[in-house]
Amino acid sequence: MAEHELKIKDKFYQAKLDGLKPWEFRDARDRQFAVGDTVKFRETDSQCSQITNVYTGRECQAKILYIHAPLPDFCIFTHGPIEILK
Questions:
Q1: pTM here?
Q2: In angstroms, what CA-CA distances link 62 with 55, 58, 72?
Q3: Confidence at residue 53, expressed as pLDDT on a 0 to 100 scale
Q4: CA-closest candidate to residue 33, choices 3, 60, 71, 59
Q5: What is the pLDDT along the chain (86 residues), one digit of tens a residue?
Q6: Which residue, among 2, 12, 4, 11, has the nearest Cα to 61 in the 3D structure?
Q7: How far is the C-alpha of 50 from the C-alpha of 32, rounded, in Å?
Q8: Beta strand ranges found along the chain (DSSP E)
């Protein structure tokens, strides 16, 4: 099983912690997501530009439970319970 490290904006990170966003829509051209993989989410400050990616220091992770690929090069996956790391 692989581990994927993903950036996530603070407003979406909080929704994930609150259990409101147990899914992700992601570009899959540079990685192969698979059921059972661990996804580590690193929160970024939404006030900063996409280029600078200022990390807030908060991190969490979860296991991928289901994957759907409705478009070439993109996927939607759901994940299990969140484990807060930092």
A1: 0.89
A2: 19, 14, 24
A3: 76
A4: 3
A5: 999 999 999 999 999 999 999 999 999 999 999 999 999 999 998 877 666 778 999 999 999 999 999 888 999 999 999 999 98
A6: 4
A7: 23
A8: 3-9, 23-27, 38-44, 55-71, 74-79, 83-84
The hierarchical CATH code for the domain 3-84 is: 2.30.130.30
- Is residue 8 within 8 Å of 16, Cβ to Cβ? yes
Q: What is the rounded CA–CA span in Å between residue 68 and residue 46?
A: 27
Domain edges within the chain? 3-84
Instruction: List 71's β-bridge partners, or say none.
Output: 74
Please return the burial class of 29, using the count of CB atoms within 10 Å of its CB with bins 0-12, 13-18 and 19+. exposed
